[in-house]
């Protein structure tokens, strides 16, 4: 992958809740806030690298299936570096980022299908048209893991040690797995214990949480007919998590936890973080706050807030 890995969205310092409005009333909890990235989510860490990788390998078009955030990020970096972008969005999804994708020059393809079917459709289009496929589960997915592993390096460098817990919202499980790999790499150098991971998602809408809570060692897909997408939970909803097995393995290896959050919980926390701490946080990201509050006592915990509202 012939790209300059140094040119990534700059890391931001850890934010201690007690240094802001102290919404959580804890001295041992830190936020890793990805909302400062150019399009406002952790997706910028992978999007810029995918666009550069596409250019390095001679592609003129990059494609992705998305619920919104990833598509906006890919379209932004494609325009920045002069690539054409094709963004597939399920037409039934309530994405607030369609106009933004169009503004960045992204060509939007909509179909009345679930997200997982859109991933398959974009993969087929990419293969037949010679496009670079940046969707999860593609041949280029290893770049996602590397890009997200930089989050761990920033956390470790800021703390000067491993936290006991890291709490992460999960959809496909890609972000959590990448963060885990970063800590694993550090652990191999220092001998320190890898943090325990707290995986958080929407009620009855994520295979990783579902499988772990039932003690399954192999990821189980969910029945798509039983999943209800809402404006709040869409970034978390999945009946097939593309990196679900990897994320599930992380939970078992690190003696982690998996928890559900309701839309009401996520929305409440998002509003309170804005009111008391001055942080604009995507409600789905706040599932990680809800989970941490249930699990963490006196241990040091870093909560990954993956995007701004």
From TrEMBL:
SUPFAM superfamilies: Tryptophan synthase beta subunit-like PLP-dependent enzymes. Residues 13-307 form the Tryptophan synthase beta chain-like PALP domain. InterPro entries: Cys_Synth/Cystath_Beta-Synth, TrpB-like_PALP, TrpB-like_PALP_sf. Pfam families: PALP (PF00291). PANTHER family: CYSTATHIONINE BETA-SYNTHASE. This is Threonine synthase. The lineage of its organism: Archaea, Methanobacteriati, Thermoplasmatota, Thermoplasmata, Thermoplasmatales.
